[in-house]
């Protein structure tokens, strides 16, 4: 105790008696704050794993697999085979249109089918006052120079379409739509039919079911009535 008083004269004896020694010394010890540890390799892997689980990171993944070509998992090989009869047949069916759109996304040319769909919707307008705002949206999105989804049109077709924007009709985009349709039919459609995902749909077959299982018969005492005892099998 005398040694401690010599080293720490500011401490009195009563304080040391009432409180344990380590509690008296504690204020004199300055603890250094913990430094923030950098994330290790394991933490980084965990964060990356969580990030890859988000839906936006899986959109378009594994597009070469047949099952991801179309959401309609129930598409039969016979139905998929009809898509190869003609380009019009492909676009006339919802599952076929969806599958072709997904295929164009892999080629970064989905603006063509989006423009074609927009034109189809435009022609279904019920009143004349609906045509102007729809026509303006289509023109600014797909046709005008440096449009965000500009489609490939020749100068003459683009000029004719531009001139009719003052008073748009239901036929305003007919020439442009036909040009894009021919482009897809002659260029993208043959590649779609040769693609591995489409061939996978043609080769898909439902799992073969085995022969029906025969049910065993349960015998009762009545089944043996009238049977000679020496011939009965036990």
Task: Report what the structure shows.
By secondary structure, the protein is mainly α. The chain has a domain of 127 residues: Regulator of G-protein Signalling 4, domain 2, CATH 1.10.167. 50% of the residues lie in helices and 0% in strands. It has twelve helices and no strands. Helix 8 packs antiparallel against helix 9. The radius of gyration is 39 Å and the shape is elongated.
What's this model, at a glance?
This protein has 234 residues and is mainly α. It has twelve helices and no strands. The protein has a domain at 77-203: Regulator of G-protein Signalling 4, domain 2 (Orthogonal Bundle), CATH 1.10.167.
Note the main attributes of this structure.
single chain; 234 residues; Regulator of G-protein Signalling 4, domain 2; 12 helices; 0% strand; elongated; RGS_sf; RGS_subdomain_2; signal transduction inhibitor; RGS18 protein; RGS_subdom1/3
Question: How many individual β-strands?
Answer: 0
Largest pleated sheet: none
CATH architecture tag of the domain at 77-203: Orthogonal Bundle
For this structure, the quaternary state is single chain
The overall pLDDT average reads 74
Distance between the termini: 102 Å
CATH superfamily of the domain at 77-203: Regulator of G-protein Signalling 4, domain 2
Instruction: Please give the count of helices.
Output: 12
Q: Please indicate the percent range of residues in DSSP E strands (runs of 2 or more).
A: under 5%
Q: Output the CATH class name of the domain at 77-203.
A: Mainly Alpha
The Cα radius of gyration reads: 39 Å
Protein name: RGS18 protein
Keywords: Signal transduction inhibitor
Organism: Prunella fulvescens
Domain RGS: 86-202
């Amino acid at each position: 105790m005398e040694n401690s008083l010599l080293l720490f004269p500011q401490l009195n004896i009563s304080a040391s008696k009432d409180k344990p020694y380590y509690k008296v010394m504690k204020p004199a010890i300055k603890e250094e704050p913990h430094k923030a540890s950098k994330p290790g390799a394991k933490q980084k892997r965990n964060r990356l794993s969580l990030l890859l689980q988000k839906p936006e990171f899986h959109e378009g993944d594994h597009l070469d697999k047949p099952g991801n070509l179309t959401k309609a998992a129930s598409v039969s090989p016979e139905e998929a085979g009809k898509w190869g009869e003609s380009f019009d047949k492909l676009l006339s069916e919802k599952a076929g249109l969806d599958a072709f759109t997904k295929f164009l996304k892999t080629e970064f040319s989905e603006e063509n089918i989006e423009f074609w769909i927009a034109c189809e919707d435009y022609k279904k307008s019920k009143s004349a006052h609906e045509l102007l705002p729809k026509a303006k949206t289509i023109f600014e999105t797909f046709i005008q120079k440096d449009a965000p989804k500009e489609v490939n049109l020749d100068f003459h077709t683009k000029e004719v379409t531009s001139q009719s924007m003052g008073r748009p009709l239901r036929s305003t985009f007919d020439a442009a739509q036909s040009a894009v349709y021919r482009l897809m039919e002659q260029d993208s459609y043959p590649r779609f039919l040769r693609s591995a995902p489409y061939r996978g749909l043609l080769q898909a077959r439902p799992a073969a079911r085995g022969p029906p299982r025969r049910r065993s018969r349960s015998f009762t005492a009545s089944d043996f009535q009238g049977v000679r005892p020496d011939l009965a099998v036990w």
